Amino acid sequence: MSRGGAAAVAALLILLVLPPFFVDDYVQFILDLILVYVMVSFGFNIVLGYAGQLAFANAAFFGLGAYTLAICLGRLDWPFPAALFAAAVVGGAAGLLVSLPALRLRAYYLAIITLAFGELLRWTYVHASGLTRGSSGLGVPAISIFGIPVASDRARYWLFLALAGLTLWGSANLLRSRFGRALVAVRGNEAAAAAMGLAPAVVKIGAFAWSGVVVAIGGAMYALLLGRISPESFGLSQLLLHFSIVMIGGLGSLVGSVLGAVILTAAPELLRDIPGLEEIIFSLLLIGVLLFMPKGVAGLLGRLALFRERLYLT
Amino acid sequence: MFAQLVVSGIGQGSIYALVALGMTILFRVTTVVNFAHGELFMAGAFLIYALLNALGVPYAAAALAALLFLFLFGNAVERLLMRPLANAPHLSLAMMTVALSYLLRGGVRFLWGGNVRSLPPMFSFAPIEVGPVVIDAQDAVIIASTAALLVLFFALMRYSRFGKEAQAVTDSTRGAALVGINVAAFQRTMWGVAAMVAAVASILVAPETMLYPDMGARVLLRAFAAMTLGGFGSLGGAVAGGILMGIIEQLAGGYVSTAMIDIASYIVIIAVLLLRPSGLFGRAEVVRV
Amino acid sequence: MAAPESVLAVNRLAASYGKVAALKSASLRVGAGEAVALLGANGSGKTTLLRTLCGFLPPAGGEVRLDGVAITGLPPHKIFALGIVQVSQGRDLFGSLSVLDNLRLGAARRRRPGPELAEVFDYFPQLRERQRQLVYTLSGGEQQMVALARALMSAPKILLLDEPSGGLAPRLVAEIGRIVNALKEKGATMLLVEQNLKLAAMVADRFYILRDGETVAEGDAAVLQADHKAFAHAYYL
Asked: Complex ipTM, two decimals?
């Protein structure tokens, strides 16, 4: 990285750290929520955008992360780092589990089995009420990290920023590695991936597992932010939000993931009150993206030469 | 109790069979798995509801209107949403149907809200008693109509030129074009036909069931379970799988717990795909030359 | 070459797959009752030319005329209706339908009076015996016959044959050659892509050579008959 580049990154980091000093509570909450969906989008994009696999399990990973964290903190009294780690492990295991059928089944079977998997989990949240308190919802206690309480949306912002930053760094490195190149090759042609010395099966399992980890951490963050979770938060409308963020931001672009999360997280607050409006607007956006700009907002920006290089580095 | 459960299972399963059949005919001719098919069924039911309640038309007229509207709607979907993506990757086609499913659900929620609605029963003759089994009027109508329609449908597929051409497009789109079939137009018609088959299910089920915007998503998963059970892409398999799925649900509900009714289809999907992906009737993939 | 009036006239036709120009400038004529061979190495654009003629690939330039009328850029089903019918290399049969259904579908959408089933079966006695059999259960040679028979049922003005002998055993190649010759004697107009020079020489009146997407030579088929080894050497290497 050049000296100018390093300076730019440093400036960006400072800019990102500052907002809690200036914004009001509501904006702070939205900023936190954006970081949650940045995580979701990083994770989902790996499967949908980079590996090109149509899977509906993302809301399931998200819910697993949220419930695992809430149960570990509230029921088992685990310290936060351990609970977060548990959420990541459960998410990764779920990713591994749904990727196993993906290996030998055709593309639409994967979509169907993940759809069933997500609905099955949602049913479990409702009916395993001994663990989840069912439809009435499960509270998430306040946390502290190594003795330092993280109770306000401001404090959470810095925690979330650190987690998102680490994930972005990890994902970008992963995608730049041999694994990442093989992943993109799987989308086009499995033989090409094999030619890179990695079995397509291994690549797919890795993609789903990493996706599960990242999205589950996002779910854990979501649980912390809301303080109470219930099964209906992890159904089809959650999934629509995930699809929209990734598709509208841009398939196969991490920068697009951030853009999608910023654009779509701020918007729905305004739409929540009118039934169906959120679904209508998001689906119309999706249709528009599919018809007119298949590379999403990132692709649009990518047409400007200025952005092109950086956007497609990752 | 067993026989009673099986009979109500066949009633429920008939609807799953019709929805799965619609998805299968579309899949065979276009290779698109339509994730919005449940919503076509849902929209048909709400259309009938609206025509009956708001305009007070007779049921038969509402049913005809639903058939016609969904046929045209299916054509429009193909022309406006799917055809422009003809050269796009398969993921985009599937995503388009996902987007459409949300659009229809949102549209209905916007117009009617999320509340559950219902229609008065269409038939009110006394339940039919066969030994210990009681078949309720609406179930009897559903089972009989579905059976009649299926006979008609399969005769059409087997003996008519339209049926042969559908098989031709399924086997080879290039071959179909080489014998002069306008494949794009044929696929558009098939979108219309598939949507119309969904409307048939709506017509049969609307007077009996609760209407709510998410009813389509619920039926979609059962239709997927039906197709998976019967072997994905097989017409007969979709029907057999649908009826079987209805019976499995009722038996699970009757003998295990009513909560099982909701997840029987998910378990069936996961179990079949893991253990026997070609389906119960186990024929291998459609043979292509 | 005093070709009779042209049924098919192709002028400087070009086509591409995405950015790859597979066909740059192909020009040829086929007269009524004529059998014309299209020769060239693999990748020279022969199959692309046939695909473009049938409307599967949009032309990027040039012109196609059928009986003097421009038909450039029409979709496949319209081209079929006008009478250009292809027997493709992949055959593109309907495997899960019977031989009979395949042939009937060949005739279902034809716009011109065509032969009866019985007439077509006269060319292919084997198929008459197997008319109830599902096509995917047939051997490669029999499938090739179904493909030819289905095309005949379509009442073609001009028949495009893409490698009719491809992948077949020598005995079957001779059989296909015999059938194509018989068709020709009945006055069929044909454009034939063939790697097998011997077969091409046996059937064709004239030939064109395609190289890198351009027609670079044409001539009388007698040249092929005389010395196809020297010919192959000259044009394929």
From this structure: 0.90
